[in-house]
Write the structure tokens for this entry.
Amino acid sequence: MKHLDEFRDPKLARRLVDEIRRTVSQPRVLMEVCGGQTHSLLRHGIATELNEVVELIHGPGCPVCVTPAEAIDFAQQLALEPNVVLASFGDMLRVPGTSRSLLDVRSRGGHVKIVYSPLDAVDLARHHPDQHVVVFAVGFETTAPTTALAVLQAATLGLKNFSLLVAHVRVLPAMEALMQSPGCRVEGFLAAGHVCTVTGFDEYESFVQRHKTPVAVTGFEPLDLLNGIRECVNQLEANQCEVTNRYARSVRQEGNASAQEIVSQVYEIADTPWRGLGVILKGGYRLHGEFEAFDAALRFETILRRVDDRSNMLTVDEQGSQTGCPAGVCPSDDCRSGEVLRGLIKPVECAAFGTRCTPDSPLGAPMVSAEGACAAYFKYQRTI
């Protein structure tokens, strides 16, 4: 195995790989839904080592990558408005909207501020009452508690110049959508351990029973991932399906009750667009009505409507381009990022990969983000 000596326990890693190989009676197809896991699988050579017996499909595990182009367009326009500051995590700046990125907008004088926590944006609004601070609230269930806490703090302080552009998404509904999509080959899932630290994994039970698909909750370390793969393979070979926790040092079945309470206080579950997947039933969050004063989409409704009209004119049709790119997925017809995000192709199957599309000159979001599958393949493995 590539980089075997770098494993914390090389002998255990080899034993797990050998056990997986002995157990598999036919090639199996598993999907991980976490970009950090994708990078670990490639960086440590696990995907290559198991390629003949277990195909690892990379799902939409990067929240930056699945943020809709239209939401990014809206964020860009807000940054160009007088007396508005768009506060964002740094990994969002290079992700393309319909035609440009937040980095492009900032270079043109847009007010884009990189923050490391939404609470930093609350402080920014408190100390600059003449500026309206909008937080680009992006991420899975792991980041929703911190943006919810920021709203509660802003409400306590009585801030009138603070709001959120909410683009939070939920992982399990995306797994549901993928299982119901045409051509789905997934037989088992490696669930995102960091998400389950917040949500727990009780709700995965009904998913497993409906789809007869095993789910193993795993972390990011190579041994965590190998244990998760072994668990899924063992269940498939035994015609079983259940949820198992292979990340017990961090994940409890019930999750983090305090974080869940904060999220449910501020947000409600809503049907939400995902880049590359379309609108997913219960796929994200929106602010509860009592916090609508902090909703940037309502506060700047006129701007949002103008951006929506322009985006509808610029995006490709619903059938996608000749390379299969759904509407709003990427600004280039050469980019197949929509298919990458749905796990239909590997990045190397895109003709633009590594030539017209590189981290320095990306065509689509999965090559831009540090957690994107295309970026992982470019950095670690270009031939799988």
About this structure: DSSP finds 18 helices and eleven strands in the chain.
